[in-house]
Each structure stands twice: as structure tokens, then as C-alpha cells.
Amino acid sequence: MDSETKIDERYAELFRSRIEQISAGSAPFINSLREEAFGRFRELGVPDRKSEAYRYTNLEPLFSHHYHDYIIPDAGDLNYARNFECEVEDLDVHNLVLVNGFYPPNGGALKTIDPGVSLGSLTEAAVSQSEVVERHYGRYAASDEDGLIHLNTALATDGVFINVPEGVRSEKPVQIVNLVRSEKDIFVQHRNLVVVGEDAEATIIICDHTVSPNNYLTNAVTEVYVGANARFTLIRVQNEHNKAAKLTHTFIHQERGSYASSVNITLHGGVVRNSTYHHLGGEGAHANAAGLYLTDRTQHVDNFVSVNHAVADCTSNQLFKGVLDDVATGTFNGRIVVRPDAQRTRAYQSNNTILLTDDARMDTRPQLEIFADDVKCSHGATVGQIDDNALFYLMSRGINRREARLMLMFGFAHEVVQEIPVEALQRRIDTLVMQRLRGELTRCASCMMRCRESVQ
Amino acid sequence: MLIVDNLKASIDGKQILKGMTLTVNPGEIHAIMGPNGSGKSTLASVLAGREFVTVNEGTVTYFGENLLEMEPEERAKEGLFLGFQYPIEIPGVSMVNFMKTAVNEQRKHRGLEPLSASDFLKLMREKKELVEIDSKLTNRSVNEGFSGGEKKKNEIFQMAMLEPKLAILDETDSGLDIDALRVVANGVNKIKRPDSSVVVITHYQRLLDFIVPDVVHVLYDGRIVKTAGRELALELEQKGYDWIRKEAEKSDETWTVKPK
Ligand SMILES: Nc1ncnc2c1ncn2[C@@H]1O[C@H](COP(=O)(O)OP(=O)(O)OP(=O)(O)O)[C@@H](O)[C@H]1O
Ligand SMILES: [Mg+2]
Question: Is the N or the C terminus of chain B less surrounded, counting Cβ atoms within 10 Å?
Fold first, then answer.
């Protein structure tokens, strides 16, 4: 058996041996999708490097490592979540903590935050708000090429559910702190579902964070439905350690006239892969996808973006930027698909990377598939060093070389950071980026959160 | 304050400055004119410390020090200022942050405490009024999306913030409308202290109606071929550079027959 088959077998075995426990802790509707998803996973397997979408990210070592699965949450972990506090100054949010993908049921597994807005455990929602969940769950996370999405549907037990009903503008953002914490090396799966009704508005901040030094592998799927004329922003801040592998798949389905923005800020992580899908399914919708990656040492960050213009008169913009140091590697794969009916599409994409050393490496690939004729599309990618002319300009005003370089890198990164519409968070990320670029920080000090346990 | 002596400099092996000599004393205003490509900006680059220009021969002394050995930022901290012919756009770096860092670096160099946030904003406000630059511009990223004229105005704003001892203004007047030209020129005159000096590089006599030079030089093919009072600018405006070219070529010939 080759190593790929061996890996696929191992995860198939995990499914077979744990399916009863998984189902017992979950909801009937979610369970009803598992067998089929498992079948799809068997067909597709864990993507290898022959897969176009994973050409530059080798999942093999991650999946062949032996992890403990985390199917039933540990009471101690859930208690930990209860006491966890995020300390970003002036960040006024509805806060929610997941530990290893589970929602701790303190104060009820599902709570109402604003009028009619529910926030809480997906498993719970699948029972008590079954109508909403059944209408959306599993509808958007579809893929003919990525077996990991189906693996998640087959295995995931819990995650966050947010429902913002029609017309409700939820002003205060929801912050989901995704903690990974265990004494053992673990494999974590979770699943989020966000429903933003017609004319509604919601902002969600997801903070991916590890609090103990083990090897982790996370395979998370988030589905978002953005109703007609609704506004939605998703900000993801990733700050994990070198032994953590994070694979996220985010599917944002947009209806007519909606606006949706996804911003991925990757400050630290061993291997990070973010797949972000925007589906423009109603006329006049706008999708904004942005990302920033700051990596050093042997870290690897892979951003895969796919914007699907399914109907006419939609616009989209992709802006991804990064700074790679040491022997860090990065990948950007930006796909724009314009379907035959999607006339008058406007779609833009840009990816710019600064390499600080000769050994850092960036692979960037635009993928344009255009089947309509009245379309304006542009894409541009640069991989290079700090601009000498800009550096000299700053130095000619009395700023020393080191400081001038920092200012330029900061400015470069800030173009993405300013896509964060939550002011307190934007300020905080700016500070973290500056500290990160100055090399002043250990991972822990650079963290958004102050945990009681510290990790080396 | 500045003595350039027999300066020869090249870019990518191509000789651009071919024995420049120039002395600027405290308080003086010099104008440097000359046809396109004669080396005016190259001279400015050498003085400001751009690396892509190689100095092959000659010396530059600034307040008794060897200027060529100083880092660009040291030169700036010692009061040298270059107004760029083509100011650079730097997206993501705010004007405020840029100027705050620059002003405080220079203060540190002079042994002064950094300005408090409110003192700094006060200084910004004062200088903005002086050069009549819009807050809309100073609230943006450095030169990002500025029009040609706005970029030039922004150079003078920076000069006002930094109060240099020697300012070299490379075609600060080009791209300015008539009103902006007057504002910029008045700004320069107001910023200039009795003992500070200005070298304006320009193609147009018009600027020199506002910033009145003590001396006018003509730079031709990497060398200063003529130096006179401000009437030289008027003469150039009327007659162009042809006669200068002829004179220069004639003197070239005499040089070639001169024994070494
Ligand atoms: N970076 C460079 N690489 C190669 N050649 C250069 C570079 N910069 C300037 N030169 C060349 O050096 C010569 C002098 O250029 P410089 O910019 O100093 O002229 P100038 O007198 O300022 O002209 P203008 O009036 O047009 O501004 C020109 O022939 C120009 O092409
Ligand atoms: Mg020039």
C-alpha cells in the first residue's frame, strides 16, 4: 500500500470505529449526511500534490502523523474555555470560546444576543432550530476536488451556529476564539454555520489559537449564507505555533445585492492552509477577499481563494500580501470563475510578497476561467524585495535604514490590515504586525490573548 | 557650507558628472539650470547619497566633513534636504507617521526629546498653513494618489517640517500651476533662515522671480560651464542653450590641446 492509500485507510478506519460515538453526540440531521460524505471522501481521499489546488502544500506528513482523535469533549477543557478571556483593548464583542472545536454549554448551548440573533452550539441548533440548519447546512461546502471537506462533514460533531434573522443589523461583532488545547497530539474537526438573513448585517472574528505545545491538526469548515442585500464580514486571525497545522475551508454564499468580505490574517502557524470560496449567486453582489501572511523559519502558509461569478453584474476583489523571512514558504492560488451568464462582471486580484532572504520562497498562481464575454478582469502578482526608491525616500528624511525598512514592511502589510472594519482589532493587529516585524516577540507575547498557561 | 570639487560620477559605468565644481555659502540661494540629461538630478542624487551613482573622483565637503562618507540619513540629520524631482508614492505609510518619525529622529540627533503627540500635531498644523497644503493630503499615505503638483507641494511641506540648513530642490516648480508656484516659492522663502541655503534646480526663469537667486549656474554635459548673476536666467529664457553649447564645445577644444 502506498503512503496515500495508507493515510486514506487510516481516516476511513477512524470513521468506522468512531461513527457511533460521533453520531451519539450529534444531531439527527447532521448525522444523516455523514455516510454520503464519507463515501465522497473515500473517492477523493486526502488531497496529494497531484491535486492542482494543493500543488505546493504537502499534506502527507501532517496526515501520516499519529494523532488522538477528539470526539468527546473533556470536561476540564470546557471549564478552561469558560475562564478564558481575550484581552484586546476596547474590543467590544460577543465573545465565544471553542475548545478543540466544541462549544462549552455554559449558560445554555444557544443564547440570544441581539433581538432574534442566536449564537451557540451547532449541534444544539440542529435540534432546536432545525428548520434553519436544514435549509443551509451542507449546501455550500461542496467540492469535487477536496476530500477534506467531505471528511469534515463525515466527522465533525460541533462548532458555532449564528443566525441573524432578516433585517437585523447586529452591530457588535461576534468573536469566536478557537482554542486548541491538549496534553496529547490531536486531530480536531469542527464545523461552523452562519446565516445572515436578507437585509441583515453581521461581523465575525475568528481567532485561531493554540494554548499547549503539542502537534495539532485542525480541519475546519465554515459555511456562510449571506442573504439578499445583507452585509457580512469575516475576520480570521491565526496565531498558532510551529507544530500546529491548520486547514480551514470557508464557503460564503452570497445572494443578490449582498456584500461579503473575508480577511485572513496569519501571524504564526506551522502549516496553514486557508481555502476561501465566495459564491456570487445573486446579481449586484460584491465579494472582497483579503489576506496577510507574515512567516519566518520553516512556516508555510497557503491561501487558496476561489471567487465564483455565477450571475451577472457582480464585482469582486482579492488582495493578498505577505512577508516571508528565513526559509519560510508561501502559496497563493487565486481563482476567478466567470460563468457564461455572468455578464458585466468586474473581478480584480492582486498578490504581493516581499521575500527577506534568498531562501524564502513564494509560489503565486492566478487561475482565471472566463466563460462570459463582457467582463473586466485583472490580476497581478509581484514577488520581490523592498523597493529601493521608497527606502531611499524615507532615509533621505533622516530615518535610519532599519527603521525605514520596518516602516515600509508595515505599510505594505497595513494595506491588508485596513480591510478590518473593527477599529479596536485593526489597531491591535497593526501593533502585532509591527512587533512581529521588529522580531521583538515570542509567539506568546504576540498573542491577542493572555492565557494563564504559557507555552514555549 | 558645501564645497563640491571636481566631482566625477557615473551610473552603470556611464560617466554623467565630469568634473563639477560648486561652492555654496551660508545664506545663499543658487539656481542650477541646464538642458535635459545634463546631470542636474544626478548631482542631487550624489549629494543626498543614492547608491546607484558611483563617485569616481573629486570631493564633497559639507560643513567641513566628507559628505560622501555619510549615510543618507546622517546627511539628512545634519540638515541636508532633497526635494525630489519625482517624489515616491508609499502606500500604507501615513504622512503623519512618516513625518513624526523623521522629525523625532532629527531631534534625537540634536539631543532633544521626541515631540509629544500634541506638540507634533501643532507643528504639523503650523507648517501645513505655511505651505497651504490640504489636511486631506497629509492624512493620506505618503504621496499616494497625489497629483503631480500636490507631490511637489508635499516636498516643500516636508522641508518646512525639517527646517534644513541646505535644501536642494530638484524641479520643485515643474507641474505646479501659477498659484501653487507662488505658494511654494513663498513657502521656501519663509522657511529659509538667514544662514540657511537653497539650491534650486529649474528649467524656468519664472520660479526665480519668486525665489531670487544670488547665483545662477548652467550645468552642461556634467560640468558647470557658466556662472553668473540672476540675469543669466533671463538670457537663457530668451536664447535657449545653443550659445552655451557652442561656448562649451569651444572650451572643450581648447582643453584638448592643453598639455597635461
Ligand atoms: N538610474 C539611472 N540609470 C541609468 N542612467 C541614468 C540613471 N539616472 C540618470 N541617468 C542618465 O544620466 C544622465 C543625466 O540624468 P539626470 O537625471 O541627472 O539629468 P537632468 O539634468 O536632471 O535632466 P532633466 O532636466 O531632464 O531632469 C541622463 O543621460 C540619464 O539618462
Ligand atoms: Mg532632473
Answer: C
Sign of the Cα pseudo-torsion (A398, A399, A401, A405, in order): negative
Nine cell digits for residue B75: 546627511
The answer to whether A398 and A417 are in contact (CB under 8 A) is no
The alpha carbon of residue B243 is apart from the nearest alpha carbon of chain A, in Å, by 36
Model pLDDT for residues B156-212, shown as the tens digit of each residue: 999 999 999 999 999 999 889 999 999 999 999 999 999 999 999 999 988 999 999
Q: For residue B161, what is the nearest residue in chain A, using CA coordinates? A: A397
Domains and CATH numbers, chain B: 2-93+164-250 (3.40.50.300)
Distance A66 CA to ligand 2 centre (A): 65
> Which residue, by CA, sits nearest to atom 31 of ligand 1?
B37
Residues of B in contact with A319 (CB under 8 A): none
The Cα B140–Cα A338 span in angstroms is 35
Q: What is the pLDDT of residues A307-351, one digit of tens each?
A: 999 999 999 999 999 999 999 999 999 999 999 999 999 999 999
Q: What is the ipTM of this complex?
A: 0.94
* Residue A220 to residue A153: CA distance in whole angstroms: 10
Verify whether the Cβ–Cβ distance B82 to A396 is below 8 Å: yes
pLDDT digit string (tens) for B89-138? 999 999 999 999 999 999 999 999 999 999 999 999 999 999 889 888 88
Residue B16 Cα to ligand 1 midpoint, Å, equals 8
Contact A398 B109 (CB under 8 A): yes
DSSP one-letter string for A129-196: THHHHHHHTTTS---SS-HHHHHHHHH----EEEEE-TT-B--SPEEEEEEE--SS-EEEEEEEEEEE
